[in-house]
Design a protein that fits this description.
This protein is mainly beta. The protein has two domains: 1-69, Beta Barrel (Thrombin, subunit H); 159-300, Methylamine Dehydrogenase, Chain H. The protein contains no helices and 29 strands. The protein has strands at 4-6, 12-16, 27-31, 37-41, 45-48, 54-57, 60-63, 69-72, 77-82, 88-93, 104-108, 114-118, 125-128, 134-139, 142-147, 153-158, 176-181, 187-192, 196-201, 206-212, 222-223, 229-234, 239-244, 250-255, 265-266, 272-277, 282-283, 286-287, 292-297. A four-stranded antiparallel beta sheet has the order 1-2-3-4, with no helix packed on it.
């Protein structure tokens, strides 16, 4: 499992993986917090709207309830994110930028009508601001803020250069692979491919904190509903980390898998942190097979 989401009302959790005998690419749906399995939907999930109205797979955007296709997704694109209100969906080109090849396309979710296309640099991840009009994109070691309707570049958040570390192989740099805004859009969290988590203040474009939370890609992080905490999973070491936003200090860290930890989610009431696991934990000398959803209570 590397994808998990909880509905905005906190009643349902969705995650991918080998669910109840289905193919590994299926999406499973459970009620929360009871954990009763409800149903599965075929297709590898890419994104889901906050109200669980829409689901994007590797091939199409679907009506979540009925499973009917709203519009197909080209094999040259991948869905990156839905806007907070679900009205828009952003697609990312799966091909590296060549010349003026557009990397990001924003569509109306209801019918797939084009809104804007912009950006020529290879983009790894996108996230919508809560205002539904601003989009953040991660590319190389920077984050760009865009106007969704016009495609105008609003700001460039440039990661500070760091001295080379001869003990660490960093593939000649960092890529931003995870992005998330907090609930009111004042903060932005960015995760890189070398285990770094950044916390930005959006209004001032200021980098508040940068810290190493693990190894490998930092999946799409998540802010707690009150904005005081941010969590992120790291793929190489299978850990989920909890960070204090104000101080930038690492508060807690736990290994959830030996095979990587994907995206994470807080429950809407802020009481729980939900993390997917690809399995592989050694418990009592036994090797665990398959993925599981792990739920942690947040200490007050």
């Amino acid at each position: 499992m590397n994808f998990v989401a909880i509905s905005s009302d906190g009643s349902k959790v969705a995650a991918n993986g080998n669910v109840h005998g289905n193919a590994a690419g299926a999406l499973g749906l459970w009620n929360f917090p009871a954990g009763e399995f409800l149903r599965s939907i075929a297709g590898e999930p890419r994104a889901i709207s906050a109200d669980f109205r829409y689901l994007a797979t590797e091939t199409s955007v679907l009506d979540f309830e009925s499973g009917k296709t709203i519009f197909p997704v080209s094999h040259e694109s991948s869905v990156g994110a839905f806007s907070r209100n679900g009205d828009y969906v952003a697609l990312i080109s799966t091909s590296p930028s060549k010349g003026k090849h557009t990397q990001i396309t924003v569509l109306k979710t209801a019918d797939g009508a084009a809104v804007a296309s912009f950006g020529t640099r290879y983009t790894a991840v996108v996230a919508f601001h809560p205002d539904n009009r601003t989009l953040a994109s991660g590319h190389w070691n920077n984050v760009t803020l865009w106007d969704v309707r016009t495609g105008a570049r609003l700001a460039l958040l440039m990661s500070p250069q760091r001295p080379p570390d001869p003990t660490v192989y960093d593939r000649d740099g960092r890529y931003i692979y995870g992005l998330a805004f907090n609930r009111d859009g004042t903060m932005l969290a960015a995760g890189s491919d070398d285990g770094e988590l950044q916390i930005w203040e959006v209004a001032t474009r200021k980098l508040l904190h940068s810290l190493k939370i693990g190894w490998g890609d930092v999946s799409n992080p998540a802010f707690s509903p009150d904005g005081k905490l941010v969590a992120g999973g790291t793929y190489a070491d299978g850990k989920v980390s909890l960070v204090d936003v104000a101080s930038g200090k690492l508060l807690s860290q736990i290994q959830v898998s030996m095979f990587g930890c994907g995206s994470v989610a807080f429950s809407p009431d802020g009481q729980y942190l939900i993390a997917p696991s690809n399995g592989g934990l050694l418990e009592n000398g036994k090797h665990e097979n398959g993925g599981t959803i792990r739920i942690f209570r947040i200490a007050k």
